[in-house]
From TrEMBL:
Quaternary structure and interacting proteins, as annotated: The complex is composed of two ATP-binding proteins (UgpC), two transmembrane proteins (UgpA and UgpE) and a solute-binding protein (UgpB).
Organism encoding this protein: Rhodophyticola porphyridii
Gene3D superfamilies recorded: Periplasmic binding protein-like II
Protein name: sn-glycerol-3-phosphate-binding periplasmic protein UgpB
Encoding gene, per UniProt annotation: ugpB
Residues making up the signal peptide according to the UniProt record: 1-22
Record flagged with keyword Cell membrane: no
Length: 438
């Protein structure tokens, strides 16, 4: 349920660095995609690092949303003006790996080795690190803000309707009907629909999105998410819409306000909404639970997959600058920093040490349900179908999926027609990516 935040901002005092002092330091430019309160917290990481030593100066610079930041970094590299570190969202991984093949990326595992910094990849949560490793298990970029979708619920509405929080999709429908009968305007909703309703639905039920291990095994992959399980799942949601149990609220986090305002009783979206919900929800108690299981498809869940972003290091700078970049990334990975970040935002602590520290400090006991994301990611060792995805042009492909899903919600297409079209259009974009990067 809703509780107060356990962790405050880091206790390290921020020491102002004058222009003269900064000139004596080795500068590292860090481009990120986090605005608002999250951006302030990211800037604080840089300030804290700058304050604890006098050799390096990390400049934390906001570059717009995820797509804008990645696009700007690619353009900057071509112009020879690239930052040292750039934050890239998870669906940009295939694009960044293509850049790595062309010598543009300094793999994190190699960076740490060259810098002489102890770096144990086994200390990272498996469901997080597997997404960003190569086929040999080497980490290419540093996981930073990792999240996974959970089911957020309005505990007051559930209590008033006398229903339990659902654990299966059949129970989601039944609970929605009971909530609707009790006056809830729109019982069920979600955000980032490709990520939550197709990508994570598939991983949760150990169903591949495409061939060749969801793209991890190489190019030439073909999408397969027009399978019966996904089609039936999407059709079920469409039927819920016809019954007045589901209302579509937008492609990204646009429907957040529907949950915060009490219009929606169940909302599937990122665990990273926790910090904002603590600040913004004052009229009711809320909680988070595991994703529902489709018992027609599986007897038990496999694991969910992450969203969020990682930090990529770009080639083209001096050795002393890379030493500073490595030390900054090591600082970000410490248990203390990760525990503070996860506790104040809802992102997943990327290391087992950080999760253990949060447990020791009583965070999960004080804030029931906040370990849901960690539990989902750690349920089982990831399989080829639940490790994640690595498809080229996936930013554009998600737009295609969004268009096709919107045609279902509006009643213009059946789920079968939409998923078949999304696969056909998506495969065309995969072939274009391969042709451009061959």
């Amino acid at each position: 349920m809703k509780t107060k935040l356990f962790f405050a901002a880091t206790a390290v005092s921020v020491i102002a660095v004058t222009a003269a002092q900064a000139q004596d330091r080795v500068e590292i430019n860090f481009w990120h995609a986090m605005g608002g309160q999250l951006g302030e917290r990211v800037d604080q990481f840089a300030s804290d690092f700058n304050a604890m030593q006098d050799t390096y100066q990390v400049n934390s610079i906001y570059q717009g949303n995820y797509t804008e930041t990645m696009t700007t970094a690619v353009a900057a590299f071509r112009a020879g003006e690239q930052p040292h570190i750039v934050q890239v969202f998870e669906v940009g991984t295939a694009t960044m790996m293509s850049a790595a093949d062309n010598g543009a990326i300094y793999p994190v595992h190699q960076l740490m080795e060259d810098a002489g910094i102890e770096f144990d990849e086994a200390s990272y949560i498996s469901g997080v690190i597997s997404y960003y490793s190569d086929t040999e298990g080497n980490l290419l970029s540093l996981p930073f803000n990792s999240s996974t979708p959970v089911m957020w619920y309005n505990a007051d509405m559930f209590e008033a309707a006398g229903v339990e929080v659902p654990t299966t999709w059949d129970e989601v429908v039944e609970a929605s009907r009971a909530l609707k009968a009790n006056g809830v305007e729109s019982p069920f909703g979600f955000g980032w629909q490709s990520w939550t309703m197709i990508e994570n639905y598939s991983a949760w039920h150990n169903i591949p999105l495409g061939t060749m291990e969801n793209g991890f095994a190489g190019v030439g992959t073909e999408f397969t998410f027009n399978n019966d399980a996904v089609v039936n799942h999407i059709q079920r949601i469409a039927d819920m819409g016809e019954e007045g149990l589901f209302t579509y609220g937008g492609r990204r986090g646009d429907s957040r306000g529907m949950f915060v305002n009490g219009e929606v009783a169940m909302w599937i979206n990122s665990s990273a909404y926790y910090g904002g919900f603590v600040n913004d929800i004052t009229d009711f108690e809320f909680g988070q639970a595991m994703l529902p299981l489709d018992t027609d498809v599986a007897d038990a869940p496999q694991n969910s997959i992450i969203g969020g972003a990682t930090l990529w290091v770009l080639q083209g700078h001096e050795a002393d600058e890379y030493q500073g970049a490595a030390e900054f990334l090591a600082f970000l990975s410490t248990a203390e920093q990760q525990a503070d970040w996860a506790g104040s935002t809802g992102y997943v602590p990327i290391t087992t040490a950080a999760a253990d520290l949060m447990t020791e400090q009583g965070f999960f006991e004080e804030n029931p349900g906040t370990d849901t994301a960690i539990e989902q990611l750690s349920l089982n060792e990831p399989t080829p179908a639940s490790r994640g995805l690595r498809f080229g042009n996936f930013v554009q492909i998600r737009d295609v999926i969004n268009e096709e899903l919107e045609a279902v919600w509006s009643g213009d297409k059946t789920a079968r027609e939409a998923m078949d079209a999304a696969v056909e259009r998506g495969n065309d974009l995969l072939r274009r990516f391969e042709a451009a990067n061959s």
